[in-house]
Amino acid sequence: MFRINKIDRELRWSKHLQNVVTKCRKSLNVIRVLAHHMWEAHPKTLLDVYKALILSRIDYGCCAYLTCDNSAMLGNLDKIQNLAIRYSLGAFPTSPVAALHVEANILPLALRRKQAAVNYYQFRVDD
Questions:
Q1: What is the pLDDT of residues 51-91, one digit of tens each?
Q2: CA distance 108 to 90
Q3: pLDDT (tens digit, 9 = 90+) per residue, 36-60?
Q4: Nearest CA-CA partner of 84 in 47, 52, 38, 45
Q5: Does residue 7 sit within a domain?
Q6: Can you state the angle between helices 71-89 and 109-126, rounded to 10 degrees?
Q7: Whole domain around residue 47: which residue ranges?
Q8: Which residues, including other chains, have CB under 8 Å from residue 66's CB and lie 6 or more apart?
Q9: Is the dihedral of CA 11, 19, 61, 55 positive or negative?
Q10: How many CA atoms lie within 13 A of 55 on its CB side?
Q11: Which pLDDT value is given to residue 118?
């Protein structure tokens, strides 16, 4: 069902996650430019761009690497999500991450991964 771009033999997911982080950082620059005061894009529009360009890449195959124990790589994904939400909302760097998630109405990535796994396994059981 999922096509994982880069996979290693030990299933550590480090190559795949590094590829996702690299692509998401490039897309993060798009949000930063659109959030600049010269463009003044609306926060909802910026969050939609985030969901389309970054969150879709992060979510793709996330239930496959749910058991990944490479917390540094998963932490990099969390940092990208937090920066994208921060840029979209125009929040200060000292704003609490939990408050940003509530304001943007976006779940933290750890909860999104668990929710995707539950949805996937429920779908498989129903078949």
A1: 999 999 998 878 777 777 778 888 999 999 999 999 999 99
A2: 19
A3: 877 788 999 999 999 999 999 998 8
A4: 47
A5: no
A6: 110
A7: 14-126
A8: 113, 114, 116, 117
A9: positive
A10: 21
A11: 87
